[in-house]
Write a structure and sequence with these properties.
Layout: E1 4-10, E2 13-18, E3 21-26, E4 45-48, E5 54-56, E6 65-69, E7 72-76, H1 91-105, E8 113-117, H2 123-130, E9 134-139, H3 142-154, E10 162-166, H4 169-179, E11 185-188, E12 193-195, E13 201-203, H5 204-218, E14 225-230, H6 237-247, E15 254-262, E16 271-280
Parallel strand pairs: 3-4, 8-9, 8-11, 9-10, 11-14
Antiparallel strand pairs: 1-2, 2-3, 4-5, 6-7, 12-13, 14-16, 15-16
Helix pairs in contact: 1-2, 4-5
Length: 281
């Protein structure tokens, strides 16, 4: 069951349905004309950045509502930046995570350990946990970690072994190395630019190589997978694939790259929304 659908895109915007709520929001890569222009009048609310970040019709939105994607439930809420607490273009990655964790569990009694970095509201954490992994969820935003905890509870995972960490990613990873902790799988979706609670900054073009170096050191002696995704212009599938190839050199396995896309009915153009590179043993 999936409550999400891309209804249309074009003229620098996207029209989406989130469990009965239809929204129009900016999308710079949608440089074509809309496929179904009449549908845009269905929008319950719109968001634009023409004069600062601003919702139009926000009073018509529920303060909070629940959306289900492939059996996983998410709490949604319209934020001041136009986000809702979910990136549905990650849907295919969540399915891949579940498959990797399931494969890692075959013939084992202990749970695979998965580290989710820049973890936002926890879509990848939920995917790994629902497949049976022990998960460490790391994000610098206390509010987003709380949102992710609520999503976990919504999916019956309140008592599941998930560590909830509010911290700068590099500081946390270095502490994990000193503790000798290791993981069979690592997931990361680094921001173009991010700021930690203590003034730390993260710039993907400057910091991603170091993040991947630390990831490599945190992988166990028998690693299973690493998933890297990004929404940064210029960080194409080939760019992410090249970076990941260097980071994983010597481990064997295979690397797959591609675009993350939002999709809808056959007459609606798929909408590229970031890139991924993923390694598996």
């Amino acid at each position: 069951m999936t409550d999400y659908e891309l209804l249309d895109s074009g003229r620098g915007a996207k029209l989406e349905r989130f469990a009965g709520v239809t929204l129009s929001r900016p999308c710079a890569q949608a440089v074509w004309q809309p496929c179904t222009p009449k549908r845009w009048a269905q929008a319950d609310a719109t968001f634009d950045r023409e004069d600062g970040n601003r919702w139009h019709g926000r009073s018509r939105l529920p303060k909070q509502w629940v959306l289900t994607i492939d059996g996983t439930r998410f709490n949604l809420s319209g934020t001041d930046f136009g986000h809702l607490g979910i990136f549905p273009e990650q849907r295919a990655q969540w399915a891949w995570i579940k498959a990797q964790v399931a494969a890692a569990r075959e013939g084992r009694t202990e749970r695979p350990r998965v580290l989710n970095l820049f973890a936002y509201s926890g879509g990848s954490t939920l995917a790994a946990a629902l497949a049976g992994a022990e998960v460490c969820h790391v994000d610098a935003s206390k509010g987003m970690v709380q949102w992710a905890r609520e999503n976990a509870e919504l999916n019956g995972l309140k008592e599941h072994p998930i560590r909830w960490i509010v911290d700068d990613v590099h500081k946390f990873m270095n502490r994990e190395l000193r503790r000798g902790r290791q993981y069979e799988g690592i997931i990361l979706d680094p921001p173009t630019y991010g700021r930690g609670g203590n003034g730390e900054t993260y710039k993907i073009e400057r910091d991603l190589p170091e993040t991947l170096r630390l990831c490599r050191e945190l992988l166990s002696e028998r690693p299973k997978f690493l998933l890297l995704s990004a929404h940064t212009p210029g960080h194409t599938p080939i760019v992410l694939g090249n970076i990941l190839t260097q980071a994983m050199r010597g481990l064997g396995g295979s690397i797959e790259t591609g675009e993350m896309c939002l999709t809808g009915a056959p007459e609606v153009f798929p909408l590229p929304s970031g890139a991924y590179a993923r390694w598996q043993a």
